[in-house]
Design a protein that fits this description.
- With 409 residues, the protein is mostly helical.
- The chain is 32% helix and 7% strand.
- The strands form 5 sheets. Strands 1-3 form a two-stranded antiparallel sheet. A two-stranded antiparallel ribbon has the order 2-4. Strands 5-6 form a two-stranded antiparallel ribbon.
- It starts with 17 loop residues before the first helix and ends in an 85-residue tail after the last strand.
């Protein structure tokens, strides 16, 4: 007898239902998202940690150079002059001339914008003088005419200021000329506003000037850019002049003098700085001490007259270069850092005759220029480097900025 067996077999193995499969996919997706978020956060934190060390490194390099260069004093031929100013006033005028030279020298050595390199060294001058006994007095170090003692910078092509300025100009000419494919491009052509013959634009000018400083000067025996990685340099605006970049690949912010940055208060929002009284501003500046470059307190701002409302509120204070990063959002919300100031600050074109002085003590011709790092007459929250809502979006984006954590003043 032949027995037929059924080909159908019943399986006892368990199986996923469609609902269980969907739930598993959702759980895996959630776990994957959490892992991805954790990795992203770890990556951002790693960039943040590197940015903090990197910004400190850049600030220390710049500060090393700044401390060395700020000690230089001018030298020029000695001349004998006669005038009616007494010795005390004459000494004050000479020390003011030296201070003016030092600040102009720092402007040339630490450019922060193309305009700093366009402007030649200023003619540094002060009133000639003679003591009450009509005795010839040695005028040192600046001399030019019978009515005004001045060092005419144009006559000293080998001066330190001229050499520093031309050094950067030649590098810009080579970089922009190579980008434009034009040999022998002059510096004036690089900054004349004509994009057809190559142009060094003002976009990211601070980061580009920092590149010029690091590439053109030696730090511990080698060019400063040798201490940077290839990813730390780039030309994001495609004008031929590279910028120093932060770990997020964006240009850093650089300023030679940023008074608004150092006038921040820790106990209230920076946006309220416009309401500071002169007394509060004086106390704040008192915590910052005096300008170490001006050892003899020669700045005309010290010569205020008792009774003037801003007496001592305008006193100078230490200013040093700073390098900052905009952080992960790429927004500084600092005056002069997100976009170039318009118009640009013409440090080499401030008339000294507009500066405050003791009545009847010192008089200067209108044509004499004074390099003013403190931008006399500019409101505190409009000072270069001031932290506020510069893009007018209604909120402060400066919270994630990477600032130097080491003392830089």
């Amino acid at each position: 007898m032949i027995t037929c067996r059924s080909s159908k077999r019943s399986s006892s193995k368990p199986a996923f239902t469609l609902v269980e499969l969907l739930v598993s996919i959702v759980i895996i997706g959630i776990i994957g998202g959490m892992v991805s978020q954790a990795l992203t956060g770890a990556n951002q934190q790693a960039k943040r940690n590197r940015a903090e060390a990197y910004i400190n490194q850049l600030n220390l390099m710049v500060m090393q150079m700044y401390e060395e260069e700020s000690r230089r004093i001018p030298f020029a031929p000695v001349s004998l002059r006669q005038n009616t100013l007494d010795d005390a006033r004459a000494s004050k005028s000479r020390s003011l001339a030296i201070l003016n030279w030092q600040r102009d020298y720092l402007r040339c050595v630490f450019p922060g914008q193309p305009l700093d390199l366009r402007r030649p060294p200023i003619d540094v001058g002060y009133p000639a003088y003679r003591d009450t006994g009509l005795r010839p007095v040695r005028i040192d170090p600046l001399e030019d005419s019978s009515t005004l003692s001045a060092w005419n910078a144009a006559l000293y092509e080998n001066s330190l200021r001229h050499v520093a300025r031309v050094k950067y100009q030649r590098r810009v000419e080579a970089l922009v000329g190579q980008k434009a494919g034009i040999a022998g491009l002059s510096f004036n052509a690089c900054v004349d506003g004509d994009l057809n013959n190559g142009e060094w634009t003002t976009e990211h000018e601070g980061a580009e000037c920092l590149y010029l400083i690091l590439a053109s000067n030696l730090f511990n025996g080698s060019p400063g850019i040798d201490a940077l990685k290839s990813d730390d340099l780039g030309d994001t605006d495609d004008d031929g002049v590279p910028e120093v970049l932060d770990p997020w690949g964006r240009p850093v912010g650089f300023a030679r003098w940023a008074p608004g940055y150092f006038l921040r208060q820790n106990w209230e929002p920076d946006s309220s700085l416009t309401s500071l009284t002169d007394e509060e501003l004086h106390l704040l500046k008192g915590d910052l001490a005096k300008d170490p470059i001006d050892l003899l307190l020669s700045d005309p701002r010290y010569a205020g007259v008792t009774g003037i409302p801003n007496f001592q509120a305008d006193d100078p204070f230490p200013l040093v270069p700073i390098v900052v990063s905009a952080g992960s959002d790429g927004v500084f919300d600092m005056v002069g850092f997100d976009a170039p100031l318009n118009p640009a600050i013409d440090y080499a074109n401030t008339p000294l005759s507009s500066m405050p002085a003791d009545t009847g003590t010192l008089t200067f011709p209108a044509g004499l220029r004074f390099v003013d790092p403190y931008l006399l007459g500019v409101a505190v929250n409009d000072q270069f480097g001031a932290v506020r809502d510069t893009d007018e979006q209604g909120f402060d984006n400066s919270g994630d900025n990477v600032l130097p954590s080491l003392p830089i003043r």
